[in-house]
Amino acid sequence: MILLTQRLRRDGVQLLVWILATAALCFSATAGVNEAFAAESERRTLLAVALANPTILLFRGLPFGTSEGAFLVFTILPFLVLLGALMASFLAVRHVRAEEESGRADAVSATPAGRRAPFVATVVHGILACVLLGTATAVAFIAAGLEAGGSIALGGALAASAAVFLGVGLVAAQLFRSSRAANSFSVGVILSAFLVAGIGNALGTPSDDLTRMESSGLAWVSPFAWAENVRAFADDAPGPILLAVGVSAALLTVAAALQATRDLGAGVIAPRPGRAAASALLSRPFGLAVRVSAGSLVAWVVGSAVVGALSTSLGDVIDEIATQNPAVTEMLDRLAAQGSMDQGLVVTFFVMVGTLAACFGVQTVQRARQEETHGTAEQTLATPVARVGWLGAFLTTALGGIVVIVAAAMAAASLAVFARGGDPAILGDVVVAGAGQILGAAVFPVLTALVFTLLPRATSTLGWVLVIAAASLALFGTLLGLDEDVVSLSPFAATPVPDADGIAWNGSAWLIVLTVAGVASSLMLMRRREVATGG
Predict the structure, then answer these.
(1) Is 516 part of a structural domain of the chain?
(2) What is the tally of structural domains in the chain?
(3) Does residue 300 form part of some domain?
């Protein structure tokens, strides 16, 4: 009980802000959707467009009706599950692996609490956070005027899916020796699940009236699809919630078994032994930054390559499935004059690539903070290494990694075009969309560096919040009825994109100015900032 109280006190403000912000988003989204799509005919038209152009479903929810509640779930649920997944997985890693890294877990295990009590306290703490998140969202929807039954079903789906990723985070904390690796693994699982659910929905079977989609079998691999197939405000099916609860219990059991068998401070996966002598690369700050970021860069490159390949290879499959329904064929003919479906698919997928690249950039700059809190930065800066050069090395690695990640996606997209014998003209769209996302993604490590120099303790939280907020604004802002000027505040939405007339440059100028000014400002501030020696 003491350990649980300690965790609740430590995370109180952070979890409260996260949960209340999610609830506020639910309340405001309900008002926004109802205002933008007040008439059922408007909602029916948009659902028909989504089912006729399934690329929309890759980053939206699952259509299953035209009621206000069902339409709201379609527009916002995947993002709510994403927020819950990140909250739960970060909580798990923070209270297990990060505690062992800092040495605090060793001190606690030396008391009568032993090794098992802290793990149990983390599990209870995480489940409480998931339940509170689900409860807060249900209350927000009820307060916004939606029916109680559907609101409770939606809250239950959100809580259960978040609990699944709590289990993912706890298992990752057992597998890897560092919190950095555990968080990277968890985020990779979350993003993969998000993408699999979107593809599974896009490959599903639409109804004849174009108001409902049945997920394909692929979607059922993902907890995101389990939450969506509850179909809150329509079916309120309890089966997917029970499935999520069962998988969560299984993951928690696996994590507990691994916790009981491994050594404290060690991971199930042993780290690769280092060399007896350091290479010349490690004699400079840049080489060190590259070395500690290399493993995660490989993971982000692989993920972005998969997304890039899908951007040019999935169009034919989706088009074939969609045109099997006469109503879909008719709607596609109406949409033909509004732009290329393949072009829209490339732009949408490369927003996800930009998000992945931005995540790597933020993660790399956050390593500077980790080096600082672990005390290794102080040792490095005690040598002739300057503060500006030290932070500049992490920034350079972050920006260079972004270019590599997006380039990998562009290369994979190009290879997919040639492999399927597609139209080479789409390669121009790939280049424009990819180059644009490099500009958008570069903003985030720069902003994170600014936070690091001004508010060091907020580096991790604000870095991830900025990426999540910007990605959600770019992917969901239009459907939530937000003005285009508001959506364009997201760097991911302000990038150059291909259109019917060539290239729409959008806000590329201010992205460049913001990045350059941010780099200069963060390096200048670092010269005058004291180096911290603790968290």
Answers:
(1) yes
(2) 2
(3) yes
